[in-house]
Amino acid sequence: MAQQQRKATDRVRLADVADAAGVAISTVSRVFSNPDRVNFQTVEQVRAVAERLGYRPNPRKHHSAAAAAAVPERSPMQPQPSPTMPTADDTAAHSRSSSAYTTNPASSAYSANPASPANFAHSASQSRSTTAVSTSTSGGVIALVVKDTTDGISSQILKGAQIAAMESGSAVGLIEAGQSQPRTQQLLTHLIGKVDGVILATDSPGIDFIRNYAKRVPLVVLNRPVDGVPSVVPDPRIGVVRALTMLRRAGHTAVTYVSGTTSWANQSRWSCLHDVGQRMGLRMNHIGPVRPTVEGGYQAALALENSKPTAVITYNDLIAAGIVLRLTADGVRVPDDVSVIGFDNTLIAPVVTPPITSIRIPRDLLGQTAVRLLLGRESGAVRNPADAQLMEQLKDLGVRNEDEQSANVTLVDTSIIVRRSVGERRAQ
Known about the structure:
This protein is α/β, with parallel strands linked by helices. The protein has a domain at 14-68: 434 Repressor (Amino-terminal Domain), CATH 1.10.260. The protein contains 14 helices and 14 strands. The strands form three sheets. A six-stranded parallel sheet has the order 3-2-4-5-6-13, sandwiched between helices. It is elongated and about 85 Å long. InterPro entries: HTH_LacI (IPR000843), LacI/GalR-like_sensor (IPR046335), Lambda_DNA-bd_dom_sf (IPR010982), Peripla_BP_I (IPR028082). Keywords: DNA-binding, Repressor, Transcription, Transcription regulation. GO terms for molecular function: DNA binding. Residues 12-66 form the HTH lacI-type domain.
């Protein structure tokens, strides 16, 4: 049976436009009553759908609906505002935790209505100094979408994101998407029209999906660069240089890298280690990949016992912990027989015996920078003099990051946290 066509006398409702555009009814109402409070991609999309359906707005109706939407009904996935303000000690602790950068956030009172929509305006083609997706300073809801909330990493990102969001009276909600790519993409699609911006901290969605999604929702991607989309990624150079310098001073001449996943992050770390290590005269070896877990570290330890390296750097702290635990159980002493360095500086690194030296990625600063981009603000980060001097030396040596010239990528420096898992090279 042929599809029944809409008659010219049929009344097109607000709900019809919202359903066809894939947004909330309140969003359609704001498009026609107060478009400055809706990101411009959504405005264009809704108006195009309305034109196609033949919808004619009623100004009085929309102004009334807009007033009612000042305190919108919350989706179950939207975060609830917390009446608890962070203490001065909490803020000070955050500042002390970041050694790669120093920040000076200007704190302001929490908005009485953190769910009020923000005027996020997306622009992925701006220059590096102004890479931003919003010019709003009013409150809004930002979704931080992660793969796993139990790894200790997402909580660090959330902490920095919340600090930056509070500067403008915004709120950040944490959403766990899991491992499934279809589920992650379905969840992200469901957020359209329900949040004012998204920080994507999972590698599950495909590149094409991310690019199309960024046309509909203000978006910042963490931990991997995506062409045409604002991205905040760790720059491993400073942390890697300091780690390899420490090993070389301890007499090590060769370093084995234990690969985790086949992700962009893994390739970035290995490429940097290989490039810097060769310039330092170190012999760089590579094994793996293994699972990025403690169990994966157990497996790697068996291979390492056969090759007998004196220094090991791993993809993450979980692998490093597994290696230390297994080697210790087999009678191989850390760091007397082999030095071990992890990546990420997560909660497991200081609790293993011996505590693990780790290349620190300031996850809190990643979250803070992402929110500032969404709000159209400068990152607020300043490189300390020692790191600035080291970076200039690396550039003189030709050690560069291929993403530093990208207009839509913001790099965040790494550092190193020294613990007792690194020692002098053993006698041969």
